[in-house]
Amino acid sequence: MAEEVKLFGSWASPYTSRVKVVLKLKGIEYENVEEDLSNKSPLLLKYNPIHKKVPVFLHHGKPIAESLIIIEYIDETWKHNPILPIDPYDRAMARFWAKFIDEKIQPAVWKTLLAGENEREAAIEEAHQLLKTLERELNGKKFFGGESLGFLDVAGNVVVWLEVSQEALGMNLLDKEKFPILHEWCQRVLDDDAFKQVMPPKEKLLAFTRARFEAFLGPK
């Protein structure tokens, strides 16, 4: 009997796409439940009553929330094509840098978007320093995981989405002149078959991002 696997998510969510990429890399079939984030379904609210957000992964009726936790669950449940490093130290470091991306880089990027005129330069400099720190971790490697996509490459997809969508935000935070190594890594990730199947078309993503921020900040 086929396993019951469902993913509640949104095409416009980089966190949902993290999980979709891992499911593709593992070759796991699943039912995709597309959520309208402006009108969240009763099932989503039932399965994630704490955060009330996507993604939510449902396996045999048991819900799991938060993208990085979901990825670890998938990797431990379906052990073929491992996503996390085998070595315990390398595994710990991958988790550390994934947390750095979510807790340091992502808030810093938001800060640059929300900063007023007087604070914007300092916010951009802070984001640049954090991105440069991440870039140093990648230096000399094809992917964070080595020669193939791994846990940290998937976690880093929020940086890839920034590379693609920054045009809609009227900014060039991830400048290829300032961050040549990260820029080349983004291109390799975007060329990966699993990412290609998951990543929304650029124009669709740009239109969504532009509309979202115009609604949030007001049109320029």
Features:
220 residues; alpha+beta; 10 helices; 8% strand; globular
SS content category = alpha+beta
Low-confidence stretches: none
Instruction: Please compute the radius of gyration using only Cα atoms.
Output: 18 Å
- What is the molecular shape? globular
Can you describe what's shown?
- By secondary structure, the protein is α+β, with helices and mostly antiparallel strands.
- The protein is 58% helix and 8% strand.
- Helix 1 (14-26) packs parallel to helix 3 (67-77) and helix 7 (157-165) crosses helix 8 (180-191).
- The longest helix has 27 residues, at 88-114.
Question: How is the topology of this model organized?
Answer:
Elements (H helix, E strand, L loop, with lengths): L4 E5 L4 H13 L4 E4 L7 H6 L8 E4 L2 E4 L1 H11 L10 H27 L2 H22 L12 H5 L1 H9 L14 H12 L1 H6 L3 H16 L3
Parallel strand pairs: 1-2
Antiparallel strand pairs: 1-3, 3-4
Summarize the structure.
The chain is of the alpha+beta class and 220 residues long. Helix 1 links the parallel strand 1 (5-9) and strand 2 (31-34). It is built from 10 helices and 4 strands.
